[in-house]
């Protein structure tokens, strides 16, 4: 990322900001960043009042310090004749950088911005030198890319059903990395998430869940295929862990057996489950395990119409066809 940024010229910075920042789903552009950057990119204004109004708006809506007095002094020198053509792109680049920086700090108040703010001030003090303006723009672009990746991570986090992979956990890690300036860590996390999402579920992944979490995983998977599913509570459920209402109206009672592969489900469980259809007024009993079933259990289930068994291999196949991703364990990444 940084290598590509370092080769950018001033005239390329605003299009680059737009490409990584304005079209990212999940970002609430409270400052209408996309519209402002579009204006900067398509027709850089040479009216000092436009730049002043944008910067004033940013000052009103954030706590960022952009040394507006310096901007104001600079803009005042252009009052009579407008901004000289040679300086329009440079000043507009700084304005665009300020726009993005303000929006970033609105979303992530802990975002450390001193380096970029200082770079903007340095560019003004150096009378908009090409090198200083490029430095300010490129530093802002690094932040913009980190914000875009952060939004993508936050979206992806919703498909990881493990409690350790909650969206709040992902967002906390993002905030900490942004605040510390660990932007490369954000990109790395996004790449790891993408790789993990492309991996298939394994029976080892299923053992990452506690028995109760395993029940919740099954409920989430059923819901992902447009069924209604709720986990049961208390000790009066006769071994029923979930109640599922399928999309075609069938009512299922599900037993979840989170066992390791050395512990298969036996025939006794299948036979006890067979009586649940009458006792609880359901259409079918389902036993789902993370391991497998003994041969006797399989034979028994085959002879009982009202019972379905799903072993760990079948469950993994089902999960691989869902939108749910294998556990990521964000804190260990």
Structure explained in plain terms:
The protein is of the alpha/beta class and about 325 residues long. It has 16 helices and 5 strands. Strand 2 (about 240-245) and strand 3 (about 250-255) form a beta hairpin.
What are its keywords?
elongated; alpha/beta; five-stranded mixed β-sheet; 333 residues
First and last CA, distance: 20 Å
> What are the segments in which pLDDT stays under 50 over at least 5 consecutive residues?
none
Query: Number of helix segments?
Result: 16
Read across the widest sheet, the strand sequence of neighbours is 1-2-3-4-5
Alpha-beta content class: alpha/beta
Helix content: 55-70%
Percent range for β-strand residues:
5-15%
Question: What's the total count of β strands?
Answer: 5
SSE string: HHHHHHHHHHHHEEEHHEHEH
- Describe the sheet with the most strands: 5 strands, mixed
- Rg estimate, integer Å: 28 Å
Overall pLDDT score: 87
Shape: elongated
Short description:
This protein is of the alpha/beta class.
